[in-house]
Amino acid sequence: MGVIAVVALAARVAYVLTVGAGLESGADGLWYSLQAAIVGDGRGYLDPQTFFERHREVATASFPPAWPALLGAVDAIGPGSREAFQVVGAVVGTATVVLAALLGRLAAGPAAGLVGAAIVALSPAMIASDGSLMADSLSVALLVVAAILCCRAMAEPRAPWFILLGLVGGLAVLTRNDSSIIVVLLAVTAAFGTARVPTRRAVGLTFVALGVAALLLVPWAVRNSIRFEQVVTTSTNVGSLVEGANCETTYEGSLLGMWDKHCLIETRRPGASEAEWSEAGVRRGFAHVRSDPERVPLVVGARLARGLGLWNPYSQTPLEAEETRDEGFQLAAWGYGLLTLLVAIPGAVVLARRQGHRALPLAAMVVGTLVIIVLSWGNPRFRLPAEPALSLAAAAGLCALWRPRAMLHE
Question: How many Å is the Cα radius of gyration of the chain?
């Protein structure tokens, strides 16, 4: 595992210093780096554009606070730079590799855990994500920890494990909103994943985990409610997500199943706050869904195909490159991801036969990721939360090929 971790870190740092150094920061990556500088200066969470262009302090909740807080801590020590922030992502991504091995040991077996960690270590999609300045690195790491705690809670269904699961799950939601879907599934899996727990107790344990996670969100939600004078639980970017993913250009044509910034009519409307933009964007996006319901199945199918890496890569990768990524590297990520997915399918059958309910946390991560893609848009980076689980499933399949006789006796 030590060798795999060293290779993982070396690959990520090399990417930062070579490919990543020549990339122009995408909108989200630039926002995170500027926000980190503001947080590191002790000013809190302020809208970067207003702060740096107009020299005004306007509160923001555009994204959840955990990732800017981590980068802000680096900036306070540094001061931070783009490269320093990218190296932070590389370190967090390396931690994910090690955590994937631990998760694999519990849910897929020791050999599959090591092979799966190696697959994650060399994944171009994971490497590019870790160097993108975006919150995906931290959210994936926290979700893998949550899955490990889910395994432990299934083995020992006691309250402390569910409390820890709730704490880590809450941190994951404070990193990315959509992590809440996977956290809920992991909490339910931990409580109901075995037949040893009576239904009433399983319900109680589920509420323990989700209640702790919700409590962790309270300080941030209260801060937002005071600043915006209305309830904002985690962030205000939901409006732009829903509005940009549900409009004419994303329901047909070359952007089918994607997200289009040109559809953002409500976002940044003069005279409105972030919270008001978010509410208006959600209303407008849902209004389009209701006005064109017959296209929804086709759009959902396109989202899944794009998100899972089953779309034409030559039309998809230029769109991915806008998020602090290299187009050629994304083509490599597409091939690697497609191979991982194809091997993971029979590997999942092996896992189900060998591990039974112990593999359920991996299934929860994959199912949660699919739900995220369906509810958002067809971005391959939304597949990242499932990448450790898919890698472990693929590893289980490969180990079955290498040790067919041993498999018969296990």
Answer: 21
